[in-house]
Amino acid sequence: MFVCLTMAGSHPPISSNPVFPLVPAAIPAKCRESGSLLTAELSNTNLLQNCQDSTRIQRIKKMFDEAQLSVSAYDTAWLAMVPTPTSSMEDSPFFPQCARWIQDNQLSDGSWGLPLPRRDPSLTKDALSSTLACILALQRWGLGEEQVTKGLQFLDCNSASVTDQKQHVPIGFDIIFPGMIDYAKDLGLNLPFKSTDVDAMLTKRNVELTRGFGRNAEGRRSYLAYVSEGIQHSQDWDMVMKYQRQNGSLFNSPSTTAVAFSHVQDPDCLRYLYAVLDKFENAAPAIYPLDIRSRLSVIDTLDRLGVARHFNEIKMLLDQTYQCWLQGGEEIFLDTTTCAVAFRLLRVYGYDVSSEDCFFDSLEGYLKDKTAVLELHKASQIIYPEEPILEEISSWTTKFLKQEFRNGSIYVDQPGESISTKVHDALTYPYHVDLDRLGHRRNIHQYSDIDSTWTLKTSYCFPNIGNKDLLKLAAEDFNLCQSIQQKELKQLGRWIIENKLDKLSFARQKLGYCYFSAAATLYAPELSDARISWTKNGVLTTVVDDFFDFGGSMEEIVNLVQLLETWEVDGSTDFCSEQVEILFTAIRGTILEIGGMALARQERDVTGHVNDIWVELVKAGLKEAEWSRNKWVPTMEEYMKNGLVSFALGPIVLSALYLVGPKLSEEMVSSPEYKNLYEGVSTCGRLLNDWRGVQRESEQGTVNAVSVLLHEGGRTLDDAMEEVKRAIERERKQLLRLVLLEKEKGIPNCCKQLFWNMAKACHLFYLNDDGYTNEEMVSVAKSILDEPIHLSP
User: Fold this and answer.
1) DSSP symbols for 417-465
2) Terminal C-alpha separation, the chain
3) What is the percent of the chain with per-residue pLDDT over 70, rounded to a whole number?
4) Is 413 helix (H, G, I), strand (E, B) or coil?
């Protein structure tokens, strides 16, 4: 029979779950019957209006300014080691200001690197690397004897971390750190490391440098060029200089560029190094430039925390990024992470970007940089039909991340807890499954300064991204939306009682689940009417489905269909039973209410169209009831044509479209685009139900897509299941393209998003076998509807 979001599993009795009460303990006196009135009542709680003039909002908006990037003691040390390239001054630093910076910026524990409050305990190897580089720079020029001594004491106290496998490992550490130990010997430094540890590190380095290039020869060459400071005099500098970029740098790395300049005195390298020092006031960052990455990180953070809708600046920054994309800018395309994030955000925001333009940067492919791999994985989920590049990326990144997660080595490029949690979430909740508010809640709880810390050869951070003001805004926004939704849920509970739906003993009462799918996607306060419409139609389609399945006789089913077709009722004599009267009255009242709410927005009466949607649904249900009673198995074409409608998303999604804001003309709702969007989401939902529910429906004697394929013959059950699974993936990709790609004078983007919201809800509800178990769904829904977010002081 026809299905809606709450159809997975068996038909339990009326729920008494306290999370989703049918009868609220107390209905507030001010609680209105109309969602629009409720929204008006709460309009003075609009978060951004209340905070618009506050210093906190202004501080958040500064995140969109020029990138704030931490300086790197490690990279600054390598600039400080560059000698003056003239024979008369070969024993003086070319950048003496860098040596002075090192002297002025030793930390209290004798180390150099990220400030101690920001340094995660897993970053000790990074601190050892930065500290040794600074010691070498001072020793090279005979400076800072006291600071060198303190630095050596830090190395001594933390020497065990050098071989600690649980420590966060900077890129190239196994080549660079032993290389610095060799250089220390040349400078006459006695380092406080065990000789056995030093021998082991040097042996490992020699093995790494002498092994063959393997299948990814280009990746290995670029990797060895990137870690040139660990190779020095045995390096092939002609090979290294092939990786020079238009800005004069090598890999946008000040340390690599400084070492190269020491050996080849390239003027473009020098131009880049001067630009870095001018920008960062006599110090160097770990990577530069990084403006686009920084701004994309801000946008991504706002998205992940659920507050992006409050900042109009996002559109301008994405327009600029898109222009850079179209121009083939090096800052995007020569950095895998930046390219992947740009691709994902541009696509999600409706820009036309091709997967053929990007992603295969040889350096990070060889390094297996975990952040880059994770971002590639997330980008590969924004996939349209016929995109083999993204399919390939999705396949290998999924395997790689799962393997690294199992091995416990996922924390190599970000502090362990942060990156491992992100990897777990990306694998567990892919883009097509993760409802917006579920992701927002997880991300708010996980948000910390660590989120803005990355590691290449050394750690770096964006100080303006680890922003406590933003965290507080996100929590307040979540709690405000939740408080409004709690009032709406009470209002809906009253609606069920008043319409006597609780008196229908055959019917599942799934108010909480229906409302959850609306609240988790249509969460903004101003979308109250859309949430109310979505939920009421979800409840009604569930009850009507039960009525058609087993709650009503064929006479009653036909009576309900005829009543909706004729619309006008002449007294109770038109109803063949009380059940029919209750159902028709509730459906008719909801249709009229939606028509009334939509009138102000659409400036036309859409009641007739909403009724037509319902008539089409009950006719499809009647046809399936006849199939079932006659034990008739339709062809696959017949089944899917009817099944798209009988999955019952029409009343839920199509009615809500009129209530999200933009006007939808009659031409729009009769356009091929509208039809394709509806058929796409309905196909996904129908096939997901049939794929996951094949065993249950087989036991019930209900026809579904799998059983129809088996009836056609020539397939095993496994073949039929795999065929349906492929069809789901194909339809999902096609739907995503329809939703994301903009069309002039087409369906507005915010309306198209409702189709994708419903597709994600279907995928989430059918994530495990035959839909969410009751316990899982209660827990997930409760976190959105019942549990406010409390931040630590």
Assistant:
1) HHHHHHHHHHHHS-TTT--HHHHHHHHHHH-SGGGGEEESSSEEE-TTT
2) 52
3) 86
4) coil
